[in-house]
Prior knowledge:
Elements: H1 7-10, E1 18-23, H2 27-31, H3 33-44, E2 49-54, H4 59-66, E3 71-77, E4 80-86, E5 89-94, H5 100-107, E6 113-116, H6 137-144, H7 152-166, E7 172-175, H8 182-197, H9 199-208, E8 214-217, H10 225-235, E9 243-245, E10 250-254, E11 270-272, H11 276-300, H12 305-309, H13 312-326, H14 337-349, H15 357-361, H16 364-378, H17 386-405, H18 409-416, H19 421-428, H20 434-442, H21 450-453, H22 456-472, H23 474-482
Parallel strand pairs: 1-2, 1-6, 2-5, 3-9, 6-7, 10-11
Antiparallel strand pairs: 3-4, 8-10
The structure holds D-mannonic acid.
Amino acid sequence: MTISGTPETQGRPKTGRPGIVHIGIGAFHRAHQAVYTDAAMKAHGGDWQIIGVSLRSTDIVDALNAQNGEFTVIERHPDGPKAHRITSMSRAIAAARDVQPVLDALADPAIRIITITVTEKAYGIDRVSGQVVPEHPSIKHDLANPRQPAGLLGILVEGLRLRKEAGTAPFTVVSCDNLPSNGVLLRDGVIDFARRIDPALADWIAQTVSFPSTMVDRITPAATEATYADAKRLLGKEDPAAIETEPFSQWVIEDNFPNGRPAWEAGGAVMADDVEPYERMKLRMLNGSHSLIAYMGQLGGYRYVRDAMADGDFAKLVGLHMKNAAATMQPLPGIDFAQYGADLLDRFRNREIAHETRQIAMDGTEKLPQRIFAPACELASGTAELGTFALCCAAWMAVMRQRTHEAAPDKAVELINDPRAVEIINALKDAQLPTEIYDSLAALPNWMPEQLQSDASWRETVIARLSLLLSDGAASAIRHEITP
Ligand code: CS2
């Protein structure tokens, strides 16, 4: 419980100069990439300090700069919390105040890597075509103001333009968000964005910039008063940038860094030739189960993941979904999916982690396609394994309906907490029966894959579960699902 002792818990003076710009300095980044980079520099040195960029919030930037970019990571172990002081961030910039310092950092030849955690909704890239979504608010703004960008793609493309113009080698761009083939998707989106404003720049990016894919994993709930209180108790001083996280951490990275990289292996990162199978496994088994827990938990009155997991039937349902999700995977050498699933169940059960189902339930339209629909498309129509996928889809629909009908419209937008909230509310306005709810939500453009939309058996399976959820409630629907 104390922080005296090991050097890494005490923090060390900063070494090295900045070499990385990280965009999106929320809790996940501070619990993950910043920790790996910290370990890499403490073990091997190198000029890999991180300049943190926040696209929207300013509070975290001010908090970090007030303490020299340092912050506390509290690991929630079963036998009590352990605090680590992370010193890999040199400073932070609020892009919303002024984007120029961000562009200056991106243009600096010393910066060799850009890492990114901005969540799925900030990309504005169509998952199927890989092209930008012109109506996405940031894409729209940045295409109209390419020299004064505010969003992810605009900032990356302007940074690359400045480097091309100056004759500087490009940086490597690493997406660390929970998107399938995140490197490929980001590359396609960046090139398409650039092509719309400067075709020669698009060609240069296509020829010279590397976009390695990565799989990132560490359960990191939003910080709460308990986090700050523990940080103060363990360190003896306030730390408004403190975060808390689970002991487990994983990073699988495609080793494609032409300008070098930190020795992230020092923190346990694994370099791989092909990251996609790991991403698929994590998105389908961990994140897919998380979404199932989130919507069923919201319907069943479970505030935290750990409480849902303490309910025997609920835990069985999650175990069943892991099994069904594993059935969509090709074998992965060295990985036993049953063991991976069992370890995930243990992580979800961790009593020390207060992970709110409401937090995971946000942005469902952004999450379900890769977590639920893509694997469902790989199972043959009508197979039993589809049951838990259909239940997750039905639970999402039931939650959307509940929030639409139980609150005034502006409150409903806030409760639904999804970039497509207004569309969802409009779709549900006149929908009462399970068939109407399903049909109106399944028809949201560019969302449920055509293969599922045109599959009568999938429709029937989801509607049956939705009916049960609406008439008998979550516990009953779970019992039905887990009963052979
Ligand atoms: C969660 C993830 O909020 C969510 O959607 O499923 O943030 C999850 O906790 C992380 O991906 C774990 O690595």
